[in-house]
Write a structure and sequence with these properties.
heterodimer, A: 60 residues, mainly alpha, 2 helices, B: 455 residues, alpha+beta, eleven-stranded mixed sheet, two-stranded antiparallel ribbon
């Protein structure tokens, strides 16, 4: 996501969840989410087989 | 005095539980004004529990294994009669807990004496214990610096000698980071080993509870007293108690040890690398090995934390945003907006990484890695300078611990002596359910003078 897309996403997703954010709040949350986007990119670009299962209740 | 020294003194008649507790209360009174580790001191309860131990002794009855040992708990543990703050002022108006958390109950049965509740980052989301509502916890080794977090109160209380033992939680490094920065021992057991019943959650699929202390055997004794399955915690493993204290004398002959390179070298500062080398050199024949895709494992922990933490606090954020901790309310809010596809992929990467690491543990018993990239940083710092890079301090302090807790491995963090003026710790990591190996390695490092809690 570009910075503009991240900001637009925050506005839409926050609104959909019932948050009423000021412009300043949107900017702060978008700045935080940008870091998560970097992390998510590392995950989404990593190829795993379709059979790979998630660990929703992880037990080592 | 160390925990097991206290037990021995009380058993032999060299001290009473009451005198030990009064001394602990006096140290808290003397030091807490500067350090700000405690958010509550349970004076009446401590005196009552100490009197009960002394009565047992007077009656000639057997004393429990931690008889008379003062300890304190991160304030996300339920303590009967106290509101469970979890570092948030929003919780002050909640009703006091009607019973102790499971681990507090188990320590009470073991004869330990609760003296108070400890400061933390609000809702455990942070690595510096700079709590806006309750003030920052200061590092006893240098009060101008952070104690680390989120269990900064626990690390500081032990490091300042206010208590010999403290309980804490670790989701992404919250035991290991303050243990490293305060110079104490900290055990994060395998995910599911210790019951979380009666503790305030942060990230259900990553939350661990553990202990911090000034020696390996103190931590081992505390851990042994807390073990055991608990049907009321869905994550609790149905495993029997597997005592480790008696294992510490076995030494490390035959243990296959390796230092983690790659990601763990690249993201370690000079002191952290020196500490890790010093530890590796203490194990004959230690090798070097790399874990695969560590950065993606950290990313998985990061995304899972954001999504689960944000979901947990979504309603509170909607209703009480202004009362939320300013340092992390926007992180929680952003977490609540995490797309489901990211979360599911993170859980897939996590399962993949766990499987690959299990292959490494076929070749090695204990893995060594730095616990924090750097030593304790000044309070108020926002950025971390690391090997020519400028990184945001609060998330980056956990970059070496997150990949390990992401897959629930047991870790003992040990303070490494003689490396730098300020403390720094190293992680001793083992396969799931092999806390005994982490602790045997830690005991060895103490015996050879490589690990010790600074005076």
């Amino acid at each position: 996501m570009t910075p503009e897309e991240t900001t637009a996403y925050v506005q839409v997703a926050a609104g959909a969840q019932g948050f009423e954010l000021s412009t300043e709040q949107v900017a702060r949350v978008a700045a935080v989410l940008a870091r998560t986007v970097e992390m998510a990119d590392l995950l989404m670009e990593f190829d795993l087989p379709e059979s790979a299962e998630p660990a929703p209740q992880f037990r080592p | 005095m160390r925990a097991l020294e206290i037990v021995a003194a009380i058993r032999s008649g060299g001290a009473t539980a009451t005198s030990v507790v009064e001394a602990a209360l006096a140290r808290i009174e003397a030091h807490n004004g500067t350090i700000n580790a405690f958010t509550a001191v349970t004076v009446e309860r401590a005196r009552r529990e100490a009197a009960a131990i002394d009565a047992l002794k007077a009656q000639g009855k057997p004393l429990p294994p931690l008889a008379g040992v003062p300890y304190a708990v991160k304030n996300l543990f339920d303590v009967e009669g106290l509101a469970t703050l979890a570092g948030s002022r929003l919780h002050e108006s909640r009703r006091p807990a009607t019973q102790d958390a499971m681990l507090v109950r188990r320590l009470r049965e073991a004869g330990a004496i609760l003296v108070g509740a400890l400061n933390m980052d609000a809702y455990a989301y942070g690595f510096t214990t700079e709590n806006t509502a309750y003030g920052p916890t200061r590092n006893p080794r240098d009060p101008a610096r952070s104690a680390g977090g989120s269990s900064g109160g626990s690390g500081a209380a032990v490091a300042a000698g206010m208590v010999p033992l403290a309980l804490a939680s670790d989701t992404n490094g919250s035991i290991r980071v303050p243990a490293s920065l305060c110079g104490v021992f900290g055990l994060k057991p395998t995910y599911g080993r210790l019951s979380r019943t009666g503790s305030f959650p942060f990230v259900y699929s990553l939350d661990h509870l553990g202990a911090m202390g000034a020696t390996t055997d103190d931590v081992a004794a505390c851990y042994d007293a807390m073990q055991g399955p608990d049907a009321t915690d869905p994550a609790s493993a149905q495993r029997p108690v597997e005592p480790v204290l008696q294992e510490l004398v076995r030494g490390v002959d035959g243990l296959r040890v390796a230092r983690l390179g790659g990601y763990f070298d690249i993201n370690a500062g000079e002191e952290a690398r020196a500490a890790t080398r010093r530890v590796a050199n203490a194990f004959e024949g230690a090798r070097e090995v790399e874990l695969p895709e560590v950065e993606r494992a950290r990313a998985a922990a990061f995304v899972i934390t954001a999504a689960e933490g944000g979901t947990l606090h979504r309603k509170t954020l909607q209703q009480h945003y202004d009362g939320f901790e300013p340092h992390n309310r926007d992180r929680f809010l952003a977490g609540a907006l995490t797309p489901g596809t990211w979360y599911v992929k993170a859980q897939k990467v996590r399962a993949w990484f766990a499987h690959r690491c299990s292959e490494i543990f076929e070749r090695f018993d204990v893995l060594i890695a730095p616990a924090t990239p750097v030593v304790a940083q000044p309070l108020g710092a926002e950025w971390l300078e690391l090997n020519g890079r400028s990184l945001p301090l609060r998330p980056s302090l956990g970059m070496l611990t997150q990949p390990i807790s992401c897959i629930g491995l047991p870790v003992m963090t040990v303070p490494v002596a003689g490396v730098s003026a300020l403390p720094i710790g190293v992680q001793l990591i083992a396969a799931p359910w092999r806390e005994d190996l982490c602790l045997r390695a830690a005991a060895h490092l103490e015996r050879v003078g490589v690990a010790s809690c600074p005076a």
